[in-house]
Design goal:
With 600 residues, the chain is α+β, with helices and mostly antiparallel strands. Helix content is 16%, strand content 34%. It has an 8-stranded parallel barrel with strand order 3-4-7-8-9-10-11-12. Strands 13, 14, 15, 16, 17, 18, 19 and 20 form an 8-stranded antiparallel beta sheet that branches. Strands 21, 23, 24, 26, 29, 30 and 32 form a 7-stranded antiparallel beta sheet that branches. It is globular. The relative contact order is 0.09.
Length: 600
């Protein structure tokens, strides 16, 4: 018998004579999900089953059911070039295009059966319509150039888009045009003017196919200057929603997007169609209407913490997503607290209930890697009585829920309650009044130490930049086109070892997972003092969810170090592969952690 909500690893072993058999699986026990709501902020980036379980005829149904059981109300269903399984061009007096997409139609139907709302995305141009049909050059997961350029004939393209919108009129009412177009020669290869033209044509064609459709563009990841140029060219009059990516880990970008819309006098809502955070509290607090967790199935991208494995079993991130969807639901932001060191604390209102969320992946305020962290918080709280409409009495009791969905009562005495903090996200429910009165620092915090790169010496080419959410708000950065001098591009800093022993050497800045080919940052070698020079590898473990390290901590290696002062030196060993061929790297901190110790 399973003991309650959580994630369980089950093993069955059998033996008959000399024959042995063993089977393993994972079982997730989650909250009973609320019915999907069009107003819900909770969405998931859809993973087509043909990418990982093609022979399973139940794949489309399982994907839809999992969306619902995990608590999602929305999915982002991308239409890539291969989604159009057959494209036929009719060369008449008025040329037209027809297409077949039976697999995607099945996806849409199964999703709607479960009540899931669909955010359809036009992600690529089919080769048959491409303006560069013979250009096969690829860039990472973006595919060949012929899929990421403008069409050769907008008459044909418009015909396809109009038919697509009409064919999915009953299932898809919101369409997004393209993905991360601001990344040079990645998902879009062309000029800003070309892209503005693409949005105008695509928007008009979709509206002809479905006059009720709403249009979003263009999944910008940062790229405020690129979007500014598009809006200056008039893109705003062709869209109903501005779509952006990865703002929860960089909440300052939300304000930047709002300011850009104000500049162009566009009262548009903002949706985040690709988000890393399982529980995007900063998106919700910042007024982002929808967030779509990247990605449903673990087909790669481990640093983005997918929700389920390829065998459809749930990962810890999937449990956390479901807990957030249940505990926060469609709650609206009503404030925050900066009294809890090392945590972002946000409050949300759902009907008469005030919900508190404590997130140790701090992204706001004075963020310091391995800085002081609170051990417990004292709250002012009042119980929610009586329950709101449709709320069971048990769900109205004050309680604290952890990342596994396990709840315990919140004891309130004389309007006060104490919540121990363990370094994981916590949710407080069942209160009609809730705030932080005070917090106590953890005296036995991690023995890890951080040393800021910008405090050291560095070669020409490197410079100090202000970067929100990184430790101290500043980093050391290089973005150089020219080759370096004879000593290369380098940076070094002094650090102090408190006592002799073995230490893990931790790198904070860019995630070194980006060193996997094609590299989106420069490779580098490193050494300590006059020791052996080592190359940083793209297969290094990356630790996520640490305040002050928004791209994660990469473990360079383990070293035996004597007590006292040492020097860490980093030297770039080449250019990156994409999106340009520059020398490029963000370097924020070198951390030391006693080998075998867990980070808090």
């Amino acid at each position: 018998k399973l003991t309650g909500r959580g994630l369980y690893h089950l093993t069955v072993e059998a033996q008959c004579g000399e024959a042995r058999a063993k089977a393993e699986t994972w079982v997730a026990v989650v909250f009973t999900p609320s019915p999907p709501s069009e107003n819900s902020p909770w969405g998931i980036f859809y993973t087509p089953h043909i990418w990982f379980d093609k022979g399973n005829p139940e794949g489309p149904r399982w994907a839809a059911i999992q969306h619902r059981l995990l608590g999602a109300s929305w999915t982002r269903l991308n239409f890539w070039a291969h989604s159009f399984e057959k494209v036929t061009i009719a060369r008449r007096e008025k040329p037209s295009v027809s297409a077949e997409y039976p697999t995607w139609r099945q996806y849409a139907r199964e999703l709607r059966k479960e009540g899931i709302f669909i955010f359809g995305e036009i992600a690529q141009c089919p080769r048959e319509l491409s303006s560069r049909p013979d250009d096969r050059q690829e860039a990472g997961d973006a595919g060949p150039v012929f899929n990421r350029v403008k069409p050769s004939d907008y008459c044909l393209w418009d015909s396809l888009m109009e038919k697509l919108a009409a064919d999915f009129r009953d299932e898809i009412h919101v369409w997004e045009i393209w993905n991360e177009a601001n990344l040079q020669d990645r998902y879009w290869t062309g000029t800003v003017e070309d892209f503005a033209e693409l949005v105008e044509h695509t928007s008009g064609a979709i509206r002809r196919g479905n006059p009720e459709a709403r249009i979003a563009a263009a999944g910008f990841v940062n790229g405020h200057a690129f979007a500014d140029r598009l809006l200056t060219l008039g893109m705003g009059k062709h869209i109903d929603i501005l779509s952006v990516h990865y703002t929860d880990e960089n909440p300052g970008a939300i304000d930047d997007w709002k300011k850009l819309l104000e500049k162009h006098k566009l009262p548009l809502p903002i949706w985040n169609s690709e988000e890393k955070s399982e529980v995007p509290i900063r998106n919700i607090a910042g007024g982002i209407e929808r967030s779509f967790k990247f990605i449903h199935v673990s087909i790669g991208y481990p640093e983005y913490r997918p929700l389920v494995r390829k065998d459809w079993t749930v990962l810890p991130s999937g449990i956390l997503f479901s807990v957030g969807a249940h505990c926060i639901g469609s709650g609206k932001s009503v404030g925050h607290s900066d009294k809890v060191k090392g945590y972002d604390v946000q409050f949300f209102r759902r009907d008469k209930e005030i919900i508190g969320v404590f997130d140790p992946a701090q992204r706001t305020g004075d963020v310091r890697l391995f800085g002081p962290v609170a051990a417990k918080a004292t709250l002012t709280a009042e119980r929610l009585t009586p329950p709101g409409p449709g709320v069971k009495p048990i769900d109205s009791r004050p309680r604290v829920t952890d990342v596994w969905g396990r709840s315990r009562p919140l004891a309130i005495e004389n309007g006060r309650a104490i919540v121990p903090l363990s370094g994981s996200m916590l949710f407080v429910n069942g209160c009609r009044k809730l705030d932080v009165l005070s917090a106590e620092i953890d005296a036995a915090a991690s023995g890890a130490r951080a040393f800021e790169a910008e405090s050291g010496r560095f070669s020409k080419g490197f410079g100090v930049s202000n970067k929100k959410n990184f430790s101290g708000g500043r980093i050391l950065e290089i973005w150089a086109k020219d080759d370096p001098g004879p000593d290369g591009y380098w940076a070094e800093l002094k650090f102090i070892v408190p006592r002799a022993g073995r230490y893990e050497i931790l790198f904070s800045g860019n995630s070194l997972a980006r060193l996997k080919p094609p590299r989106s940052l420069s490779p580098f070698k490193w050494r300590i003092d006059d020791g052996e020079e080592r190359e940083a590898k793209g297969v290094l473990p990356v630790i996520s969810g640490i305040a002050g390290a928004p791209e994660g901590l990469s473990v360079l290696g383990t070293e035996a170090l004597s007590q006292g002062e040492h020097t860490f030196r980093l030297t770039l060993s080449g250019r990156r592969d994409e999106p340009d061929k520059y020398y490029a790297l963000w370097f924020d901190v070198i951390g030391l952690r006693p080998a075998g110790e867990e980070l808090k």
